[in-house]
Amino acid sequence: MNLIIIRRPRQIIALSEDEILEMLRGRTDLWAIALKRGKGVLRFERGQARKGKGDRPP
Questions:
Q1: Cα torsion for 28, 23, 19, 31, to the nearest 10°?
Q2: What is the spatial distance between Cα 18 and Cα 28, in angstroms, rounded to a whole number?
Q3: What is the pTM of this model?
Q4: H or E element in which residue 30 lies
Q5: Can you give the pLDDT of all 58 residues of the chain as single tens digits?
Q6: Of residues 1, 23, 3, 22, the one with CA closest to residue 14
Q7: Which of 2, 15, 18, 40 is the most core-located residue (most Cβ within 10 A)?
């Protein structure tokens, strides 16, 4: 079972993917925000990967 770990001051929260999906089911607004944020993270990571490739000499 894969767990998503969230660290907070003096707390550690461990949730399974199914538990997170269950919580998001009733909050479509939160689901949309999370998807948008995830797309931004992917774009950033791809940009960083491209930036790293340009530093190498041919």
A1: 20
A2: 16
A3: 0.57
A4: helix 28-54
A5: 799 999 999 999 999 999 998 988 889 899 899 999 999 999 999 999 988 776 555 5
A6: 3
A7: 15
